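lol so apparently i was supposed to do this last week
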Amino acid sequence: MKHTLAIIKPDAVAAGRAGAVLAHLEEAGFRIRALRMTRLNPDQAEAFYAVHRERPFFQSLVSFMTSGPVVPMVLEAENAVPRLREVIGATDPAEAAEGTIRALYAESKERNAIHASDSDENARTEIAFFFSRAELLAL
Ligand code: CMP
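anyway here it is w/ adenosine-3',5'-cyclic-monophosphate bound
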């Protein structure tokens, strides 16, 4: 699968790092195939993170993800899903490998700068959550 979904999260957008993150992704070999800036409402954030509904951090995550604008995008590369997860690094920036986006720009386990789909199946679902088929076909 050549496509995956990334979201530049509110912490990185608010810190003025959206451009740096996009540059990092392009330099890592991804093509940006679709992109927008939007602000999630609580219903949207809860739906997007529904798999985490039972986790103790769920409400805090929803509150963070609705705290400001985010930049969802579709990225293209060979083996896009595992490749992007390598480039962004571990969830916790303290554990993220040197030079990864989270090592460079994340503040904490929650405020961790960027989201990436964790499987091809989730990439399909998450791309469809933000981008219509008509939009993707128009590019
Ligand atoms: P993400 O890759 O978007 O997927 C789920 C998100 O939940 C994760 O990045 C973090 O922002 C957040 N998260 C995961 N684990 C924790 C945790 N232990 N405490 C707080 N937030 C977390």
